[in-house]
Specification:
Layout lengths: L1 E7 L2 H15 L4 E11 L2 E11 L6 E7 L6 H14 L2 E9 L8 H9 L12 E6 L4 H6 L2 H6 L5 H8 L14 H10 L9 H10 L2 H6 L6 H14 L4
Parallel strand pairs: 1-4, 1-5, 2-4, 5-6
Antiparallel strand pairs: 2-3
Helix pairs in contact: 1-8
Length: 238
C-alpha cells in the first residue's frame, strides 16, 4: 500500500486536501485519516483523530494533520518525518499560507521552509512544503466556476459593479485577502464565507475539480506543485 502524509496549517486546508485527494486518487481504494495537533508549549501536546474513512481493499493510505498554525507546519513535519518514513510513507508534504508575510518575502520563506538540518539528510527527498499565495482561499477565488454554483447571479458584471473588481479576470494572487473577497462576494447574494467547518466544507464541495486540475492549476504555481506531487504519488503526472 502506498502512503502519503500532509501537514497543513489549519482546518480549511485539511478539508480541501481531503477532497482534492479523493478527486485524484478516487474513493474506492483509499484510507484517509484526519488528525489534529493541539496543545504544546505550556500544555501537553495531543494528537487527536478528527475523522477517518477506510476501504476494504486499500491501495493508498493518506494522513492529513491539522497543525493548528502556519508556523507549526514545518516543526511538526520535522518531528514526525523519520517515524513516518519508517512506517513506509513515501511523501511528506506541508501546506500553509503566505499571509501575513508579504509577497516580497515569498522566496526567502520557501528557502527557509525547505532547509533541513543535516540529521534529516536521508529524509529530505521525501519532504516538500507548498506555500499558497496569500491564502489557500486564493485557490478558491481562482476557481470561478463555483461562483454560479453558489448563486446564478454571481456573474462577472454583477460582482464588478458592486465590489469594484472582477474575480473572473483578476489575478487572484494580487488579492491580499482572498478569504475576505469570497465573503464579500457571497454576501452579495445573502450568504457568507467563514472558517467554520460546515461553511468551509460547503464551499470546498462547490469547487469544480475538473477546472482546477485542467485549467486553474496552470495560473497558480503553488497549486500546480501540489497537484504534481499528488499525481506523482498516484503514478500519473501531467
Amino acid at each position: 500500500m502506498k502512503r502519503i502524509a500532509f501537514f497543513v496549517e489549519g482546518q480549511t486546508e485539511q478539508i480541501f486536501v481531503n477532497r482534492l485527494i479523493k478527486e485524484i486518487l478516487g474513493t474506492q481504494q483509499i484510507n484517509i485519516i484526519q488528525k489534529q495537533f493541539r496543545g504544546g508549549t505550556n500544555i501537553p501536546k495531543q494528537e487527536l483523530v478528527r475523522n477517518s474513512s477506510f476501504s476494504r481493499n486499500p491501495k493508498f493510505e493518506v494522513l492529513i494533520f491539522d497543525c493548528g498554525a502556519d508556523n507549526r507546519v514545518k516543526s511538526e513535519m520535522m518531528e514526525n518525518i523519520t517515524n513516518l518514513r519508517k512506517r513506509g510513507y513515501e511523501m511528506i508534504i506541508g501546506v500553509r499560507d503566505l499571509y501575513p508575510i508579504p509577497i516580497e518575502d515569498l522566496e526567502r520563506l520557501e528557502k527557509g521552509l525547505m532547509y533541513l538540518p543535516h540529521r534529516y539528510k536521508n529524509d529530505a527527498a521525501y519532504f516538500d512544503i507548498i506555500v499558497a499565495v496569500h491564502e489557500i482561499e486564493t485557490w478558491f477565488l481562482a476557481e470561478t466556476h463555483h461562483l454560479q454554483r453558489i448563486d446564478k447571479r454571481l456573474t462577472s458584471k454583477f460582482i464588478k459593479d458592486r465590489l469594484g473588481f472582477d474575480p473572473y479576470t483578476v489575478n487572484p494572487e494580487s488579492r491580499i485577502h482572498p478569504a475576505k473577497d469570497l465573503d464579500n462576494i457571497y454576501k452579495l447574494v445573502g450568504k457568507s464565507y467563514t472558517k467554520r467547518y460546515n461553511a468551509t466544507t460547503r464551499v470546498v464541495n462547490k469547487l469544480d475539480y475538473n477546472n482546477i486540475r485542467n485549467n486553474v492549476r496552470y495560473n497558480l504555481h503553488s497549486l500546480n506543485r501540489l497537484l504534481i506531487l499528488i499525481e506523482k504519488f498516484k503514478g500519473t503526472t501531467k
